[in-house]
Amino acid sequence: DQQVKQNSPSLSVQEGRISILNCDYTNSMFDYFLWYKKYPAEGPTFLISISSIKDKNEDGRFTVFLNKSAKHLSLHIVPSQPGDSAVYFCAAGYNTDKLIFGTGTRLQVFP
Amino acid sequence: GAVVSQHPSWVICKSGTSVKIECRSLDFQATTMFWYRQFPKQSLMLMATSNEGSKATYEQGVEKDKFLINHASLTLSTLTVTSAHPEDSSFYICSASGGIVEETQYFGPGTRLLVL
Predict the structure, then answer these.
(1) Which single residue of A37, A46, A67, B112 has CA 20 to 30 Å from B95?
(2) Is B52 in contact with B71 (CB distance < 8 Å)?
(3) Separation of alpha carbons B15 and B94, rounded Å
(4) Distance (Å, whole) CA B1 – CA A93
């Protein structure tokens, strides 16, 4: 049973437009959520996180929204840039315990 | 800050040999380190969690005698793949927590293992 799901395996967005990556989870015990960016043959790079007590966290071009009632979070990237092309993983955890990762969404930003 | 390194970055070995992968937190003390394995086109799968000075906790389905984890200090954890076989070929990634934002895991660059 997959507790963290990213239902879109890929997303293609034009440069300058908004990229929206979605993530759903099933475990209501999760109390923090993170987004990671991963290039091929590299480890994931931490992007942004959000605690369950918040519904929005913004850092530059990246904003994460959390809807606890829907058990849904999303990462917005605006404006999208070609360098943003990578695989994005959402992850969830509780009590500083292990993270549960989604399967990733491959984002491609084209000129 | 919160830099994690892994060594080696890639390794090729013969079937039956053992391979050791090191994971180091360079500028913070890692209270907990995690080892992940990534299969092609799949998510990161947690293999085990280790705390300094105690035995690692392995996830279900991960052979503890096959994947030996030693968390020798607050800055070093090692994963040894014993008697490696071709099916062990994969991308192994470690992460460490305990930095400025404690619940955030900081990942190493990964080690690609190819067993011939």
Answers:
(1) A67
(2) yes
(3) 23
(4) 22
- Is the torsion defined by CA of B90, B87, B47, B25 positive or negative? negative
B110 interfaces chain A, CB cutoff of 8 Å? yes
User: Which pLDDT tens digit goes with each residue over B22-77?
Assistant: 999 998 888 889 999 987 666 678 899 888 888 898 988 999 999 999 988 889 99
d(CA A86, CA A97): 26
Closest CA to B16 of B64, B58, B66: B66
The CA distances from residue B46 to A77, B61, B94, in Å, are 28, 11, 9
DSSP state of B47: E
Q: What is the pLDDT of residues A25-75, one digit of tens each?
A: 999 989 889 999 988 767 788 899 999 999 999 999 999 999 999 999 999
Place of tokens 């919160």: B2
Distance CA B43, CA A79 (A): 27
Hey, are the CB atoms on A34 and B102 less than 8 Å from each other? Answer: no
Amino acid letter, residue A69? S
Tracing tokens 């475990």 back to the chain, one arrives at A27
Cβ neighbours of residue A97 closer than 8 Å, sequence gap 6 or more: none
